[in-house]
Amino acid sequence: EYSDQDRDSIITSALAPGTFTGHYKQTLLFGRVDADLNPSNHLLGRVNLDRFSDTNPADAVGGIALPSAARIFRRDTRLAQIGETAILSDALFNDARLVWQDGDPITEFAPQHPSTQLVRPGVSTEGESRSAFLTNRQYQIADTLSWARGNHFLKLGGDWFHSKSGGNGQEFGSPFTRGQFTFKTGISPTIPTSQLTINDVQRFSQGFGNVRYTVNESNWSGFVQDDVRLRSNLVVNLGLRYDRQSLTDDTNNVSPRLGFAWNPGNDAKTTVRGGYGIYYSEIRANIVAGWELNGPTGFFTYSVAPGQLGFPTSLTPLAGFPPGAVLPARDITVRPGRRSFYSQFFDVSKLAGYPDELLNPKTDQATLGVEREVGNRWFVALDGVHAHTVDIERNIDLNAPAAFDRTAPGQTRPAATADATRPITPVAGGYRRILVTVNQGEAKYDGLQLNARKNFERSGVLLSYTWSHTRNNVEPDAPGGDPNDVHQLGKEWADSLLDQRHRAVLSGWLRLPWAFNVGGVATYASGRPFNITTGADNNGDASNADRPVIDGHVISRNAGRGDAVYDLSLFLERDFQVGGATLGLRAEAFNVTNHENVVGYNGVYGNNANGQPLSTFGLPLGGISNVDPGRQYQFQARLRF
Questions:
Q1: What tens digit of pLDDT does each residue of 323-343 get?
Q2: Is the backbone peptide bond immediately before 105 cis, with ω within 30 degrees of 0?
Q3: What pTM was computed for the model?
């Protein structure tokens, strides 16, 4: 399978307005071989390849970012798997699997033209020197033994998994190795950047230090499960699982499971299903990159203003860290459970709540559902689910300044005043924010889904409606998970950014004369929340996660709510006989109405003392990651023989 796409991005900078075309190419290969070695043994072989490149990932060029800031995103991965199924007896069989995966690279970001970055606020961003080249190699061995005896169907097995990953930089790049110059505001946007000098610069930054890391981890698990038919209309599932991840300090990850399927009164038209289980999630291996690269022995960014030691004399980056210069207090990220190691850099005892272990997130989940056939070929199902996850990992500044209660718009505390209240006072060569990975995240999900479907001889229809509510106190997958105030974590509990309260989907197909098939999918979904911030560091804690004060109090997290989204997609298809083969032609149209389905909104409210929002607040954000695609057409030809 091969994809080749051109994606236009609009440049609005007065220096070079126009269109930048990014090129996306992807090649996928899927191969599988099955062989019966003998009547009792079956061998499976599988190979996958995935290669792609993108010359403008996530609209890196667009808006005021000029083509010289472009980066190439590339991936090259492969997988090989061998599986063997053995029938040991008429009631006993075994399934074994060996998997090898290699990503070289799994992620690569490389500037198209490595150069010093020049930033003119509100005018342009030119140049790029951040890069990353990350690799990953994995091995897995798994085996499951199944045994059927009487009313029992027993399964037991386990797997072992080893991964080695790392490389140069983080997922989205290392620091600016060739420096970044930020120019003063107020310079006419019609003046080319090439005519500016070092006298027009208000700040210079450049990265130094270690940008490499390696992670070795092993995971293993074991399980036993028994499906018991207690009665002709009742089956109960009992299970127990144990997981261990070497990256964490969690050793008691025992997970019981219970489920059932019941036909009340032996009524074949009604089925009731339910279950409860405990599930442990793995900690992401690339979390180590934050500890290694952003820790005391990782890289750092040296930032200076005109007149300070080390400030360049021209628009040329530094050849090395300036002799005699003292690095200002910087922010670092550290892992739990390493008191003795970090004590050589700072007094760990002053960090209240520093954890001595890292845990795996734990989820309790319960489900209950009923399905019934009503009328001729009509099926109705109602399913509910509740999930509660605790011990989600997040980074918290344990060296945060004292709380700063705000009751009126525009209130701010100077950074110097805030720093003076930190447990460890920031000094030159020392640290300011000490972000520690802690298991203080929590999330809840409640959902109820109603499905109705009917299959006709020449048509079919499915109607699905889902009500759900997702709440948490941190967004694990969203960047910048800082709270409004570390000392007020209880006020972070709110709707998740993924909370979509209502979603309805109607799909169907119909056979037309002359063997044509027509159908489509119509979707409605309510808007999702977005977080609202002042855009300023009100409490002086070096994080711009502060939320505005409205009606005398700081508003809750994710208080904004986007617009609903709509989509109508249609298809038309027909098969033709061509000799001894079948030629299938299919035409599809996505988002037929070309409705603008925005998913990203500007949440910067502003920090005005009068409490009025900025004129740009709540407006849609630009870029392909903030809006679903508009109308699209797709045509397919398929030959079967």
A1: 888 888 999 999 999 999 999
A2: yes
A3: 0.87
